[in-house]
Amino acid sequence: MKHVSILPLYEATLSSIDSSHQLFSRINDFMKYQGKPPFYEVEIVGIDKKTKLNNGLYHIHTDKTIQQIIKTDVIVIPLLCGDFRKAIIKNKKYTEWVIEQYDNHAEIVCLCVGSFFLASTGLLKNKNCAVHWAVKNEFTAMFPDINITDNTIITDENGIYTSGGGFSYLNLLLYIFEKHLGREISILASKMFEIDIERKSQNPFVIFMGQKQHGDEVVLQAQEFIEKNPADTFNVDDICNRFSIGRRTFERRFKKNTNNSIVEYIQRVKVEAAKKQLETGRKTINEIIYDIGYNDIDAFRKVFKKFTDLSPIDYRKKFAVQ
């Protein structure tokens, strides 16, 4: 039997704590139906016997305090909301215990932006981490020594698991059940809770927001120029000439500050413009492609799929306003 400690962190969402508790507990019911003993002992483990959530909107009672848990097998770090820097400070008392448990071979299951707290412990240093696309820039600024993966919703590295994208943490829990108990149990949980087990990427849901908290004024001006002119046709040399700067130097500065090459940035802005038209407009896909400055339809389709994992027609089917 594995002991699961769900941490009721300050600024955590009640839904992520409760749903984690329900899913782990429900797995025990599945085992019972199969004539097998329970696999998880699930407890809410906190600093105090009672913790405030969402600025006092909810109170949660813990089963035990961290002082009472000498050893646990799985630590669940819930999804956080609000000010992440403030949340890190408020949850500092958990840090030493989490590190000690990990050093004692506990697995850490981190739900979405709970990764801000986990990163603050130092346990993610030089490791991969999935984060929600909307906080990627903030996370990078706070923790530059962590490798963000934005092409998957789950990472698995040395007993630390992270997930990116809101309720995609449910997919992470299915992943954990499969690792512990096999594919059959994971599929059963998927069916019972109606979670799409095949969801692997948050790319279809991403709204591109360029990293602008870098302090390089020329790079910022170039970003704003690109964003204000999504339908125009220009290349890297055009951008460099506009701002009177050498190509090699500027490409290096742009990549360093935005985590995108100039070409990628132009492509992302055009894809974002196309997505908006696909969602709300009535133009044909070819008309939209021409509108945003592409003459090669096949080339744009490849670029679009690169950033969204979908073809333009599939994107329209998925997100168009009817």
TrEMBL record:
UniProt-listed SUPFAM superfamilies: Class I glutamine amidotransferase-like (SSF52317), Homeodomain-like (SSF46689)
Sections of the chain in a coiled coil: none
Pfam families: DJ-1_PfpI, HTH_18
InterPro entries: Class_I_gatase-like, DJ-1/PfpI, Homeodomain-like_sf, HTH_AraC, HTH_AraC-typ_CS
PROSITE patterns in the cross-refs: HTH_ARAC_FAMILY_1, HTH_ARAC_FAMILY_2
This protein's UniProt keywords: DNA-binding, Transcription, Transcription regulation
Gene3D superfamilies: 3.40.50.880, Homeodomain-like
Record-annotated HTH araC/xylS-type domain positions: 220-318
GO function terms (MF aspect): DNA-binding transcription factor activity; sequence-specific DNA binding
Record-linked PANTHER family: ARAC-FAMILY TRANSCRIPTIONAL REGULATOR, HTH-TYPE TRANSCRIPTIONAL REGULATOR EXSA
Name the UniProt record assigns to this protein: Transcriptional regulator GlxA family, contains an amidase domain and an AraC-type DNA-binding HTH domain
